[in-house]
């Protein structure tokens, strides 16, 4: 693994999991020290993260964790719903049995994560569930298009799953129900549930307030805290 890939993976995990806050300024020099590398691979990682929609690079000002607006969330979730709904129909028509089997594997991973209280692993299994639909559709360009917004949406959903309420319980139940609809040959019911499952983020996510963003931008992390946030054991 290259140093750029290492830096990108550590930063991506810290942002998606919520360890770095929305709008938080990322210090190239501090992150390089925390990861034990020069600034060059960190700078390259920032470019990759920008392409994923996870950071905003402001010339002469710095690099910041992305700040989602209500319009951003609505457009990303609508894009995902359109793409994944068509992928579901294609995957079902190609081989509904293989689709149901792949979804069952992801559901088993979710269940293990729930039983062990590992919410980061649950989020990964959640993503794997939806990847099965895209992969079974048999069109590699569909998955590439999905990747345009997948990571940013994963960051939003991870915050819902780790917050208060019963978001992850409802999410898990819906995944099981979708699998059961598909296994039972009820594509229309699975399609409708998938749409609601994706678009619920528009009604559930609490976007950061101006005061929270101001706090994030003004926060100064110590080197020790930055190292902790970027640890692969965090």
Report what the structure shows.
The structure is a single chain. This protein has 234 residues and is mainly alpha-helical. The chain has two domains: 3-67 and 208-229, Winged helix-like DNA-binding domain superfamily/Winged helix DNA-binding domain (Arc Repressor Mutant, subunit A), CATH 1.10.10.10; 70-204, Up-down Bundle (Four Helix Bundle (Hemerythrin (Met), subunit A)), CATH 1.20.120. Helix content is 75%, strand content 4%. It has eleven helices and three strands. It has a three-stranded antiparallel beta sheet with strand order 1-3-2. Strand 2 (55-58) and strand 3 form a beta hairpin. Helix 2 packs across helix 11 (223-229), helix 5 (119-136) runs antiparallel to helix 6 (140-162) and helix 7 (167-183) runs antiparallel to helix 8 (187-199). The model has no long low-confidence stretch (mean pLDDT 87).
């Amino acid at each position: 693994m290259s140093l750029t890939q290492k830096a990108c993976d550590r930063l991506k995990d810290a942002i998606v999991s919520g360890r770095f806050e929305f709008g938080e300024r990322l210090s190239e020099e501090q992150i390089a020290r925390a990861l034990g590398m020069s600034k060059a691979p960190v700078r390259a990682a920032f470019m990759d993260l920008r392409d994923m929609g996870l950071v905003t690079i402001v010339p002469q000002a710095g690099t910041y964790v992305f700040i989602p607006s209500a319009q951003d969330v609505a457009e990303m979730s609508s894009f995902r719903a359109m793409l994944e709904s068509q992928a579901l129909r294609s995957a079902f028509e190609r081989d509904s049995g293989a689709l149901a089997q792949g979804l069952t594997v992801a559901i088993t991973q979710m269940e293990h994560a729930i039983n062990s209280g590992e919410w980061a692993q649950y989020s990964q299994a959640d993503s794997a569930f939806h990847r099965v639909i895209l992969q079974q559709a048999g069109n590699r360009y569909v998955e590439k298009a999905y990747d345009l917004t997948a990571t940013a949406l994963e960051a939003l959903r991870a915050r819902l799953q780790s917050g208060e309420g019963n978001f992850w319980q409802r999410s898990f139940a819906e995944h099981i129900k979708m699998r059961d609809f598909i296994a039972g040959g009820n594509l229309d019911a699975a399609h409708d549930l998938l749409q609601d499952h994706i678009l619920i983020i528009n009604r559930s996510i609490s976007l950061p307030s101006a005061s929270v963003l101001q706090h994030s931008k003004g926060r100064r992390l110590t080197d020790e805290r930055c190292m902790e946030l970027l640890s692969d054991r965090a």
